[in-house]
Amino acid sequence: MGLNLTEIDRVDRINKENFINNYLNPRKPLIIRKATENWPALQKWTFEYLKEVVGDITVPLYDSSKADPSKPINASAAEMKFGDYMDLIQREPTDLRIFLFDPIKYAPKLLDDYRSPSDLMGGFLDKYPNMFFGGAGSQTFLHYDIDLAHIFHTHFNGRKHVMLFDYKWRERLYCIPFATYALEDYDIENPDFSKFPALDGIVGQQAILEHGDTLFMPTGWWHWMKYLDGSFSISLRAWDKSWSIKAQSLFNLTVQRKFDDFMKKRFSQRYMTWKEELAMKRADKALAEHQPS
Known about the structure:
Helices cover about 25% and strands about 25% of the residues. The chain has helices at about 15-25, 40-45, 45-55, 80-90, 245-290; strands at about 5, 10, 30, 60, 80, 95-100, 130-135, 140-145, 150-155, 160-165, 205-210, 215, 220-225, 230-240. The longest helix is centred in the C-terminal third of the chain and has 46 residues, at about 245-290. The protein is an alpha+beta fold. The protein starts with a strand and ends in a 5-residue tail after the last helix. The chain has one domain (about 5-290): Cupin (Jelly Rolls, Sandwich), CATH 2.60.120.
């Protein structure tokens, strides 16, 4: 059977009523092709422009290697001058990525170059965007965002392959306990169903993002991304109206994260091995019980 992947819905433009009724409330992903047509960033944000305005700062870089069980999540693999990294991803493929980078800290005038889609919904954290950069071939591991925000993810200067899975599939995706990412021992592009049978039959969505495309990812959706070209994205986050989701977000960011970091520091590989084994058992159980139903 394999993975059951359909294409993410695409529109050029969408009005608020249509967006809320057909995508926000049912929590369904969407790509809006022309959400950025009035953004100065659509033309201004080249590699050279970002090098100029951000400056010659040192940034942490991340790769696709399996997480070190003794370190907190999102520990960097290397460092590089921002301008040198911009040159690198234009010049050649690389596994190195910039993850959760706040450009406004170094270039406040970038705030003038984009527009939050407040015509579609409220709750945006306009002054706290994140940027992501990657070289051709680099991948973002399969995960969902710990704060459970809705995300508007806009891509620039290249292509990116995206796969999305509803939160209800978390056990079948081998979700690591006390974490928001999946077991890192399988390749979601080409899964080995004999070793990871719970992946067989999972339903998801996919798309190729191109320059100016904006992807709406509802709260809790799992996502995996692969840069097909050296390129970058910006994510605008908005809170869900649900108080239960806000409470779960707070729990994830405080209690769960602190507990997980403490256990990693205290028990390291033993703790990680236990978590991976538990993820396998939970996935097998969900498959046997035909979950989600």
